[in-house]
Amino acid sequence: MDEITEMPLAMQAKILRVIEEQVFERVGGQKSIKTDVRIISASNKELLDEVSSKNFREDLYYRLNVFRIHIPPLRDRKDDIPELVDVFVNRFGALSGKKINKLDPSTMDKLTNYRWSGNIRQLQNSIRRAILITTNDTLLPEHFDFPDLDANGLRMIESLEDGLSKLEAALRRGDVLPLSEVEEIFIRRALNATNGNISAASEKLDIGRSTVYRKMQEYGIKIEEYQTS
Description:
Elements: H1 9-21, E1 23-24, E2 33-34, H2 47-52, H3 58-64, H4 81-96, E3 102-103, H5 105-113, H6 119-133, E4 138-139, H7 151-173, H8 179-193, H9 198-205, H10 209-219
Parallel strand pairs: 3-4
Antiparallel strand pairs: 1-2
Helix pairs in contact: 4-6, 6-7, 7-8, 8-9, 9-10
């Protein structure tokens, strides 16, 4: 379970019951199902602070906090970067239909020496973007453009990554997402790629500017989030 501090309190109570009683019911079902699972959870916030702020249940915290692993930020474990790069290159190369055979040595130097304010999500997004840009089988330094991101920028990257990951997972399972969710993902993606230029975004999406405006209002998308100075 990723980012468990974002879990609503009502859902926290349900998860606590599953942990304590090892039973659950399917949505709409009446039969209790026995389960035996190991739960691995993650958060980028300090859970005790969230407990103190009444945003996270104390009893659930102690149930989950049996064995704690602290993972340092990516900038403090740069030896992990080459292996992570290989994983993401293989994953997103396959999804895009491109065969990426190698990274230029100077590319790996650039990736290793960057501070990665957005941690693995930012690295993942950068690899995905570079694969879309390249026209051959090699990733070069110029395929990576690293902006200085503030907290809002990092949250925007995380939101984009969550949406794309959800879409990819659904496609692999053969599921169908509601059209509104798919629309929002691609509108946000287009705005991010064009730095908030609505005309350019509408061209990429092959829809009219007025449609983009209307959809932004419908999905609560603010243009300021995507404009850079």
